[in-house]
Specification:
Layout (H helix, E strand, L loop, with lengths): L14 H11 L3 E2 L4 H12 L17 H11 L14 E2 L1 H20 L4 E5 L7 H13 L3 E2 L7 E4 L4 E8 L2 E6 L2 E3 L5 H10 L6 E5 H9 L4 E5 L5 H7 L5 E4 L10 H14 L1
Parallel strand pairs: 3-4, 3-7, 3-9, 9-10, 10-11
Antiparallel strand pairs: 1-2, 5-6, 6-7, 7-8
Length: about 270
């Protein structure tokens, strides 16, 4: 496949410059998510709290200590279990390595021609711009962007409110009345896959429960995850998620632009 002529916001940064940008904007490096919050979520996953499992059903034991060890390896959080409060970290080099692996995975699917791809985000205030850029690239590569279950709704018992699936530029999100909302819930992706039946996507690009439910269903899935969201890293360790990119998932959307450009450039070079 010939590489498409893309409209980019800016030239991709060098790896060193991108690393510096990630640290400066706290997408990686000393992130805003506290050590206490990270460890609390690792315990919750170890206790199999559904809210923190993102629709995945781990096959391994995955105790609290197992999860911490994995997160130190995969995301670069502090490995010392005695470090229980204060600052925690994401290794920017792990972020960049995972972004490049994600780009290679997306490119491999696009090279097949006529790929069917599904985009979804549970963090519209942060990651939506990344997903929209990837969706735009996929369209330019003649992929079919799937939009199942638009308007499907359910009652969120935890919040006592009705929520529904809506799309913006082919990216699925959850809407609550007039607003797109943050969610960990795997139920919307399950509804989308149920509507599709055997007409499954070749690739899902997502985060949170959207990614977890797709990976659990056996679909090739790549995703983004914060240091306090260990489920997708566990899914990656078990082979259910192809690539998980560690990053703070809720900084100002414009701060993701250099990372997005690097990811798009990686896809284009691999086509």
């Amino acid at each position: 496949m010939a590489a498409p002529q893309l409209r980019r916001a800016a030239s991709p940064l060098t790896r060193d410059d991108l690393r510096e940008h990630l640290i400066r904007t706290r997408i990686a490096g000393d992130v805003a998510t506290s050590r206490e919050n990270n460890l609390d979520h690792y315990r919750s996953l170890g206790n199999r709290d559904p809210h923190y499992m993102f629709g995945l059903v781990p096959e391994g034991r995955w105790s609290y200590h197992d999860v911490l060890e994995l997160m130190a390896k995969s995301a670069g959080v502090v490995a010392d279990p005695e470090h229980r409060e204060g600052q925690d970290t994401i290794d920017p080099d792990r972020t960049i390595d995972a972004v490049e692996a994600m780009g290679d995975t997306i490119a491999a699917v696009l090279r097949t021609g006529g790929a069917r791809i599904l985009f979804a985000t549970g963090h519209p205030t942060g990651l939506l711009t990344v997903h929209m850029a990837l969706a735009r690239l996929a369209r330019e590569c003649d992929a079919t962007l799937m939009g199942p279950a638009e308007g499907w709704s359910y009652w969120s018992t935890g919040l006592g409110r009705k929520r529904e699936i809506r799309y913006m530029d082919d990216v699925a999100m959850l809407a609550d009345r007039g607003a797109f909302v943050h969610t960990h819930d795997p139920a919307p992706m399950r509804a989308m896959l149920a509507e599709l039946g055997d007409d499954r996507p070749d690739l899902v690009v997502a985060d949170h429960g959207w990614a977890g439910a797709a990976g659990e269903a056996g679909i090739l899935t790549v995703g983004f995850a914060d240091s306090n969201d260990p489920a997708l890293f566990v899914g990656e360790a078990e082979g259910k998620i192809a690539v998980t990119v560690p990053l703070d998932d809720n900084v100002l959307p414009r701060h993701y632009d250099p990372l997005t450009n690097h990811l798009v450039e990686r896809v284009v070079r691999a086509l």
